[in-house]
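Shipment paperwork, digital attachment
Item: protein structure file
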Amino acid sequence: MSQPISERDGTLSSLYRYGLAVSTVVIALGIKLIFLQFHVTFPLSSSFLAAIAISFWFGGTGPGVVAVILSSIAFGFIVVPYQVAIFGGNSRDGVSGRILTALPYLVYFGLVALLMSWFSASRRRAEHLLNQARSDLEVKVEERTADLRLANEVLQAEIAERKRVEETLSERASLLALTHDSVFVRDMNDVITYWNRGAEEQYGWTMAEAVGRVSHEIAKTVFPIPLAEIKEMLRRTGRWEGELIHFRRNGAAILVASRWAVQRDEQGNSVAILETNNDITERRRAEDDLQKAQARLTHASRVMSMGELVASIAHEVNQPLGAIVTNGQACVRLLSREVPDVQKSLEVVDRMVNDGMRASEVIKRIRGLLNKTPPQKKPLDVNETIREVIGLVKKDLIRSNIVLHTHLADGLPEVEGDRIQIQQVILNLILNGRDAMVDQTGKHELSISSARGDSDDVVVAVTDAGSGFDEEYLDRIFDPFYSTKPDGMGLGLSISRTIIEAHEGRLSAANNSAGGATVQFRLPRSKSSLK
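Attachment content:
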């Protein structure tokens, strides 16, 4: 089968195609002359027809036309005269005669050329359509192959990604199965799709029994707020946490700290909810018991701390009572004279009334302390409060052979506080200083001072000449039930610190370089004094 014309036109040069036409006509002429030389007769035009066919077939239309023209010229001007010369016959001389001789062959060759041209054109069109169809088919095959290849790559990538996700989920599921916390996954209709080992142990339902059931029904959940509000918060924020009451399979109630988190797909749609529940029943029970115990302990500590304080407070009560008795006796003597001294008697009675009021105030404040009455804060003169406490403990210090020195600064601002509670703190610091020196040899000196602090607050310090605090345990002296005294309860300084901190102050302690220790507290000035 010959090479398609379209491909030949692209590969053969014009010179080659026209050279082919000339060459075939020359060969046809040579063959014709050779056969005539040997007196071999056959159709005169057969070789030229073959040359024309070859030129049209392999060279195209242009070379075919050239072959027709050359064949007509060769036949009319060469072959016919040569044949006449060999075989004899009618010959036309001259150019016009030869043209007339070649004219029938030229018409004949032209008709053959038209036929060959039509046949070649039809063949080229068929080949063109066939090649085009083949090309289109190859393109479609290539496109289809590329699509299949791309689809295969996408499918392989999806399979790999799904495998990776499954492996990741499997690893996470294994980790979730190891935790003791209750973890389960439910869809947006609250139907359980995953139930870990911790949930099995906590609720008593196996995974096979729990999956497919509604979580709130299986746990009989009691919500702190309506479920609709929780779901609305979950929709807006994607998470929720709070405390829920659940019931185990055996009917036992448990309190859980629950955390919910929404899982979303690539389009942002909610697809599942991860819920984690920690059983805090025992912890909450322990916290409640601890709070109750702390409340009882606080109340008991305030009552027990009065044990050591009662002896000194008794002086405050006994002093006004004793003063009332003494003033009463003096009033009787003044009124028993021949001429009663009424003016002095009235002064004595007035002192008796003041002492009675002071004794009543002490009793009322002690009752308030025992009954958990809130402190009554008022503007307070610290120096006056210190003097009142000194009046309570003066005789006790004298009996203990302790010399008390006071250094009270003038012009101190008032502080906001409860007078009885501040007196309790000062009294406790003085008694602690006294106890620190009872068993010591040498001088027994105790100093109490007041001064203005750097922050315009008021500083009260009590300094003793005892052995000081153990440096190793200095940071523990304010802890409850820690005491440096053999028979101490360890509540005095702890309660004192609570009182000072309730007044927005600070209590601190330090050892002195010359021996002994200093305990001091700071109180902010009263807001009314700032105006």
